[in-house]
Amino acid sequence: MVHKVMHILTQEDSIASYFLAQLRDQVVQQDSMRFRRNLERLGEVMAYEISKTLPYSPKKVQTPLAETTVNLPTEFPVIATVLRAGLPFHHGFLNYFDASESAFVAAYRIEKTDDVTIQVDYLTSVSLENKILLLVDPMLATGKSLALTYQAMLRFGKPRETHIAAAVASPEGVAHVQKQLPDVKLWLGAIDEKLNEHAYIVPGLGDAGNLAYGAKI
Residue 65: which domain range? Predict the structure, then answer.
């Protein structure tokens, strides 16, 4: 089976558009619990779509009445999450990939007058050698943090296959990731218009971390 390199959920009508619309709505955003839940629900929808690409094999299951055979996944992805905004998104994926192991990275932007650089401060992971890696972050803005995170994670082994999932992406971020990581499969809620002068996605949805957990000081 041949799988597309990039999947955009809102290009087809589905409940994912409803969850994403609520994530964007500045009135609904005032309820941080609902914002987190909508990130979680969008992660669940994406997990279902990604599950179609996993390896499967038949397995016999005994019911109270008879034995039957079902196709079950032979492998679950390692779910890597960028803190802090990625936590509810990660939870959604883990709800469906409940046998998955996890990895976590703390990366943040250092904003200068003429550039934006990325600092990776903390990284922990299980072995990634020859595994399926799923790297999730609600916002794919410049793409720099995700590309650097992937490179940093190689110290834990080289994944056999890598997927990146984001709720909202910019064209610039997608182009950067595709250039730096040409073999990675992208799963996106939507691709928005552009990045603004501050490297934020427009129209986007605002600062996902602040909306989920409160404004940083």
Answer: 6-213
